[in-house]
Structure formats: structure tokens, C-alpha cells
Design goal:
With 487 residues, the protein is of the alpha+beta class. It has 3 domains: 205 residues, no CATH class; 122 residues, no CATH class; 148 residues, no CATH class. A hairpin with a 2-residue loop joins strand 24 and strand 25. The structure holds zinc ion (ZN) (2 copies).
Length: 487
């Protein structure tokens, strides 16, 4: 068994946070994951070579590297201690800075403010080149396997190869690119500041950017740059609030970054700074988040409610939240109780039209779908289906409990499972119009139906509503807060 003392590794350590969220000038800066792997490729996006300015964060070394394609990989991979045993995590004390340790940050909400808290990760002074060795050692010594962690490595040597030349640096690195570079296999360009670090067996590349720039990237994907300005501003506040909520979960803290760039957190694809409308919407709502009784609100959103939004407790079964109880989005639906079969059918048979809406918005107002009975059976692991019963609808009309009987009985107890079972239909707000060898559905809405309805936001923005009123409509009782960052 190969063992390495971790102490030599950490002895040269200047204290560096594992994830580098930071508060500067009343704005939050964060690290968003772009790519991770045993080696990483960066490519110039246009015909000229990429120029990267690379700085070792723990030393004065700065160097410019130029190349069409740059490959970053570990040196001495076989000698690196990738896995260790985490002994404990302690709040930072006064003498924290003079010991061998790794500092990480957690993000907390206290007394109406967001704060960064530093913690010290204390590892046992023994480490391993691969996880199997660590597991074996754990089983021999009785150390619980939950203590096995990828070691965030300070001063692992990486090689950056341009093809013509090789350059050597010690992690972590700050990388700056003025031009768009492509990262890994992504067909997207990113420019700005990046951080490269070694986390266990992987190199991790993050983009270091302000919360405001991140929000711009998210709303570009969510509502598009052609939306009316008040809709963009509404989406900016909701996306910013949702981002803070995600940061407070600290779910990527052990991974060495703050948020990932996929649907697990929010989709971030960069390239937002080129759009003037999005830039304006973000800057004119800068720092604005929704709070409820001094706590960050849950600003979840979806594509189209179909008439009324639903309550979070109907859809996700958590405890009811006062600002997510469901509201009427289209006033003609007000008088109908969509949780009843008769109310739901009456509304689903009401043809909605909106001449100002785009085609994707109109498509969510009335839709129909078909699925063969055998395909539905197959999706549910059944051989045959003889009966489908709607047992419960939420206040948006979405089916939240359904029983399907055939050679066996299957109960679907949430809207997402129902959507998936019927072939990924836009929402579970539908009724069955015919039940033969083909099952026909008539429906409205798209998405889970909780919180802000993007189609409704666009409609209100076109009629001249301002974003604070639009937010109040979908998240009643919330307040727009600007002073929530602890300096
Ligand atoms: Zn994530
Ligand atoms: Zn709506």
C-alpha cells in the first residue's frame, strides 16, 4: 500500500479557499463550473490563437501563453495523493491561518443577510493515490468510509501544452482570456476570468464572475433577449433570487465550486454580455432579490401555467409557502375550480388565443397529444391498461395523483411522473378525450406550474405592467430587497 504524508503537500500552503465566492463592492462573485476531468482542452473560438494570461495564485508567477489549442494535464500523476480522510470541519478560529489546513467557504443567510463563513477542513495525515487504496485502509482500520474525500490539492503541478511548447505551473491558477475560448467539448465560447484547481483526481475549471453577469447568462437561456424589457427585469430578479437559494444549499461546496452550469443548478452558457437588452435588465435591477419575512424567497418559475399557477405543496409535497400558494394568471379562469374534473374540463375546452404572443407561448395555451395504449403500458412496465383514473388535481388543474389499472395497478403520485409516463407531455394539466388503442389528451400549460409563469410575465409586460407588480402577482407577499449582502 502506498501512503504519502499529506503534511509536505500542505506545508507550503498559503490559505486559499476551496471555492472562491467573494463579496466586493456590494456584489457577490462566484465560481461556476465549466469543465472537469483528468485533462482539459481549451480552444480558440475564432481563427486567431487564444492568449491566456496565467497566474499562480500562491506565487508571483505570471505568464502569457498563446496557442490555437491548449491541453492542461497533471504532471507526476502517479505520485499524487488524491484521496484522504476528512477528520473534521471546524469553524475558523483565531490561529487558523498558521496551520496546515484547507479552508472552505459556506454561504449562509443570517439576520436578513447573506454571509460567507470560512471553515477548516482537517484531514488525517495519510493519503492515497486512488480510492480503492483508501477504501482498503478504511476497512482495515475501521475508519468510516464516509470520511474518504477527494483532497483539494494545493500546488499540484500541471502541464499546459500548446503543441509547440509545454509550460509548468502549480495549482491553483487564475486564467484570463480576452477572447472567446471553447472549453472541453462545449460548442460555446467563454471569455473573462477562470480558475483551475486540482480536486482529487480531476482538474476543475470554473468561471469566476459576478452574480450579475451570471444572472445575465441564465436569463438569456430562460426567456430570450427579444422579450419586452419588463419581462426581462422580472426574470432577472427571479433568476437572481433562485441563484441565491441554490448557493445557500452549498451543494457543490465539497466539489470546489459554487454552482454547476447544468439543469442541476441553472443552465449557464455564458455569452450574455453581447446583448444590450439583457445587460440593461440586469443592471437596472442590480442586486434585487425577493425576500419573505427577511428570508430569501423561493422564486421558482416555469414556462406556462395554463390559467392558474399551483401551490408548491401540491406539486412537491413540502410544507406550504405563503408566497407559493398559487394565483390566477388568466382572469377568465378565476371563477372555475380547476381542481375538480368539471372545472378542469370546462377550462381545457376553452380555446385561448393571444395574437401578440409568440408561437411557443401560443402552443402552451392549448395543446393536444396522442399516445398509443401499448406505449403508455410499456412506459409504466405494464402489459395492458384497462382503466385510467384521475384521483387528485392541484389548483392549477394539474393531475397530481393518478391510478392506472391493467394486469397490475400503478399509482403515479406527482405531476412529473405523469408527464413522463404519457410521453413527456408539456404538463399534467390535461384530460383524456378518447380512450381506445390510441389515447388522446387535451391540455394546457407547460412545466410544473409553481411560482412565476413566464408566458404570463410576457403577457403582462406587453400590457405595460412594471416588473415589481408582475413579481408581486406571482410571488404575493414578497419584498424586493437590495440590502442583503453582508460586507
Ligand atoms: Zn449543480
Ligand atoms: Zn400563466
Amino acid at each position: 500500500m502506498r501512503k504519502y504524508l499529506l503534511l509536505w503537500l500542505l506545508s507550503a500552503l498559503l490559505v486559499i479557499p476551496l471555492n472562491a465566492a467573494e463579496i466586493k463592492d456590494n456584489t457577490l462573485y462566484l465560481e461556476v463550473l465549466l469543465a472537469e476531468g483528468k485533462s482539459l482542452n481549451l480552444k480558440s473560438r475564432d481563427s486567431s490563437a487564444a492568449v491566456l494570461t496565467i497566474t499562480e495564485i500562491n506565487s508571483p508567477i505570471v505568464r502569457q501563453i498563446e496557442g490555437k489549442q491548449l491541453c492542461i494535464s497533471f504532471m507526476n500523476r502517479d505520485k499524487l495523493p488524491f484521496w484522504g480522510f476528512l477528520n473534521c470541519i471546524e469553524p475558523i478560529g483565531l490561529h487558523a491561518m498558521d496551520e496546515e489546513n484547507v479552508i472552505r467557504q459556506t454561504i449562509v443567510w443570517e439576520d436578513g443577510k447573506l454571509r460567507l463563513k470560512n471553515e477548516r477542513m482537517v484531514f488525517e495525515p495519510i493519503s492515497f493515490g486512488n480510492k480503492d487504496e483508501a477504501l482498503l485502509y478504511a476497512s482495515e482500520t475501521g475508519i468510516p468510509t464516509q470520511q474518504i474525500r477527494a483532497i483539494p490539492m494545493i500546488n499540484a503541478t500541471v502541464k499546459i501544452s500548446t503543441g509547440a511548447n509545454d509550460y509548468y505551473f502549480e495549482t491553483p491558477l487564475h486564467i484570463k482570456s480576452e477572447q472567446d475560448i471553447q472549453v472541453g467539448g462545449m460548442n460555446l465560447g467563454f471569455s473573462g476570468e477562470f480558475i483551475l484547481k486540482a480536486m482529487g483526481e480531476n482538474l476543475v475549471l470554473t468561471q469566476y464572475l459576478s452574480l450579475e453577469d451570471y444572472v445575465g447568462g441564465v436569463i438569456q437561456n430562460e426567456i430570450g433577449s427579444n422579450a419586452p424589457m419588463e419581462a426581462l427585469k422580472t426574470q432577472a430578479v427571479a433568476a437572481r433570487t433562485h441563484a441565491i437559494k441554490l448557493l445557500l444549499y452549498n451543494r457543490h461546496t465539497p466539489d470546489g465550486y459554487d454552482l454547476c452550469n447544468g439543469t442541476h443548478c441553472q443552465v449557464y452558457k455564458g455569452q450574455h454580455l453581447s446583448n444590450a437588452n439583457i445587460r440593461t435588465a440586469v443592471s437596472e435591477t442590480a442586486g434585487e432579490v425577493l425576500t419573505m419575512d427577511g428570508v430569501i424567497a423561493d422564486a421558482t418559475y416555469h414556462s406556462s401555467c395554463g390559467g392558474k399557477t399551483d401551490s408548491s405543496s401540491n406539486i412537491w409535497k413540502g410544507k406550504p409557502l405563503a408566497h407559493l400558494m398559487g394565483v390566477t394568471c388568466i382572469s377568465d379562469a378565476e371563477s372555475l375550480d380547476l381542481s375538480t374534473e368539471s372545472g378542469a374540463k370546462a377550462w381545457l375546452n376553452t380555446k385561448l388565443s393571444d395574437p401578440d404572443a409568440s408561437s411557443w407561448e401560443r402552443a402552451s395555451l392549448n395543446w393536444s397529444r396522442q399516445i398509443s395504449r401499448s406505449k403508455l403500458a410499456n412506459n409504466l412496465g405494464l402489459k395492458s391498461i384497462s382503466k385510467i383514473e384521475v384521483l387528485k388535481r392541484g389548483n392549477s388543474g394539474r393531475i397530481i395523483l393518478m391510478k392506472i389499472s391493467g394486469n397490475k395497478t400503478v399509482t403515479l403520485d406527482n405531476e412529473y411522473k405523469i408527464r413522463q409516463a404519457f410521453g413527456n407531455v408539456p404538463s399534467s394539466f390535461f384530460y383524456i378525450t378518447s380512450f381506445g388503442s390510441t389515447i388522446s389528451l387535451k391540455g394546457k400549460g407547460s412545466g410544473h406550474g409553481v411560482g412565476m409563469c413566464q408566458v404570463g410575465v410576457l403577457r403582462l409586460a406587453r400590457t405595460g405592467e412594471q416588473y415589481p407588480q408582475i413579481l408581486e402577482k406571482y410571488y404575493p407577499g414578497t419584498t424586493i430587497s437590495r440590502d442583503w449582502i453582508e460586507q
